[in-house]
Amino acid sequence: SHERICQYIAKESGALVVSVGYRLAPEHKYPAAYEDCLNASQHFLQHLQHYGVDPARVTVCGDSAGGNLAAAVSQTLAGRSDLPRLRAQILIYPGLQALDFNLPSYQQNRGVPLLFRERAVYYSLQYVQGDTSNLEEVLEGSHIPPDMRLKYRKWVSPD
């Protein structure tokens, strides 16, 4: 679905663009998509010379769920001393947290048709567990134990 934009970016930037066709939910639950992206990234980084790519110029990018995958892969690769370090990550409207779907940004952008809150939760549940039976619980925020909410309050909080 992203072939045209990848071709455009490659043409306009003069860069080599590698697009990973990862397995999709709900047929393939977590961590299938993450593993596909990580394996493809590791393979690419191990064979940069074959592709004629400068190791100092590798960037990962993704939008929506792909933005989440790009961030997760970047975090994993940051701990790998046997591979070249990524230069950057480009995250386009990524889904980065599922602790609280009632944060101010969700309220302020409630009517923006990019991806409604309910739909974001639905897709997240499909990806993680392959079923959406606790959709309302997640929308209400009761899916996270209070001790975990306190632990992550510094990073995910309406305050």
TrEMBL record:
Protein's UniProt keywords contain Hydrolase: yes
Name of the molecule in the record: ADCL4 protein
Keywords per UniProt: Hydrolase
Alpha/beta hydrolase fold-3 domain boundaries: 1-132
Source species: Nesospiza acunhae
InterPro entries: AB_hydrolase_3, AB_hydrolase_fold, GDXG_lipolytic_enzyme
Keyword Hydrolase included in the entry's annotation: yes
Name of the coding gene: Aadacl4_3
Gene Ontology MF terms: hydrolase activity
